[in-house]
Amino acid sequence: MNSSEDRSSIFLGGDIFERRELLRVCHVLDIDRIVGRDEEISAVVHALGPGTRGSPPETTIIYGKTGTGKSLVTRCVSRQAQREAESHDTDFRFAYVDCSDYQSDAKASREMARQLSDAPDTQTNIPRVGIGAANYRDITWELLDTHDIDVFVAVLDEVDKLDDDELFRSLTRSKESGKSDAHIGAICVSNKIEYRDRLNERLDSSLQDNELVFDPYDADQIRAILENRTDAFVNGALEQGVIPKVSALTAQEHGDAREAVDTLYEAGRIAEKEEASTITEEHVANAVQQAEINRFKQLVSGTTPHVKHILRTLAILTADNPGQQSFSTSEIYEAYTKLIATEGATPLSEDCVYRLLKEQSFLGVTESEHTGGGHGEGRVANRVCSERSRVNGGRHRAPTRDSDAEGTPRTGARAPHVPAHILSTDRLAGRCTDDVSWNTVHRRKSR
Questions:
Q1: What CATH code would you report for 4-22+219-299?
Q2: 229 annotated ligand-binding residue
Q3: N or C: which end of the chain has fewer CB within 10 A?
Q4: pLDDT digits (tens, 9 = 90+) for 361-404
Q5: N-to-C CA span, the chain
Q6: Closest among 372, 364, 376, 379 to 416, alpha carbons compared
Q7: Is it true that domain 37-214 has CATH number 3.40.50.300?
């Protein structure tokens, strides 16, 4: 640039986006923009509806893979319930806690209290440190009673990330234990269908069979979701084939609306950087890989250290054995225990490793397919994939675990695609995997 006149236009940007916030995950849409989730919306409305008239809301657990609309529906309906309650002279409040960001009981309890205290009529200073989880919850109960709040709902997103269930238990028992006069409910959102199995019997009984499963979107639903957000772009910016291409690719891979929206956004960003006047199918093709990286960063970054160790183990096995296409769980487990030993940590049991691999399959980090064999047999294929969109149609099926008196089969997973500079022992053995594109396919094999 040769003059201040040249520099005056550096932030003008291209003619692509009109309302880019419509394509960002953090943006909560109006409820009438939600597509393909009418039954699920009705179910959450049924759970929260009593609270809008001053009665107890129903505690509910919601399951589903990433990108199936769980968080969006829950937040939108909660916000709508708060508005509806006003018309019935009911003071209805809710707090949304992302447990992947607040994984300890104390941190999640503090965030719940902080959100309640941030309202103009309830402003209270919440200590950042120095008190325990129960004390943070006591602040919540006191705020509810001091300000005569009728109904309070805590939305615990990714509740399975919490290190224990004490917060959930306290919410479900707060009324009968005399903690607060308000009607208190909880909506727990989990990517893990097995989450309820870990709840103790007393807590499990309080749920009254209120469970809801969000299935993956199909191609038509994803296309409708994208078409419902075309006003994120200026008129004429989208070429005709862009949305059909994004929806077809995403539905085939995961049925993940979040990835579809992210792909469309990335395509727009690429076009914007190129100063193109329209978004083309070529821009979509270039955006697919970045959207996949974003998706796996999100999935993997929120996992436990042991899951990261297991996935790093798969990457190491594939890098060290370029000619080998499959690994049994016993091979994976042996390599995993060696990796853990280098850090002086205690390894999980092989059964636990199996279950964690199964969870990653459910989440779509790995793909599971029983390819043959009789009772107690199967096969696992594991390899590094340069592009996930080329891998086996992308179907993600959770493994079935047959067992007999002689033993049980185990599950392995294809190692993620890892850039060469990350495939060093140092990076894989001891570093966070946030910058790793986990392009993984998972099949079973006999031990």
A1: 1.10.8.60
A2: yes
A3: N
A4: 666 676 555 545 444 444 443 333 334 333 233 333 333 333 33
A5: 64
A6: 364
A7: yes
